[in-house]
Design brief:
By secondary structure, the protein is mostly beta strands. About 0% of the residues lie in helices and about 35% in strands. Strand 2 and strand 3 form a beta hairpin. The structure holds zinc ion.
């Protein structure tokens, strides 16, 4: 099971995939994880 990243965390640079709809969010070094832009889910896994 992959590590889960939640909205509001700063997991670091990389791509994260919504656990609900699979939407990919790309974050920079100091970006905070937003809610999913597609379905407003709050948990993601690193791609
Ligand atoms: Zn989603």
């Amino acid at each position: 099971m992959a590590h889960t990243v939640n909205t509001g965390e700063k997991p670091g640079k990389g791509e994260y995939s919504c656990t609900k709809c699979g939407f990919d969010v790309t974050l920079g070094d100091r970006d905070k994880m937003p809610p999913c832009p597609n379905c407003h889910n709050t948990s993601f896994t690193k791609v």
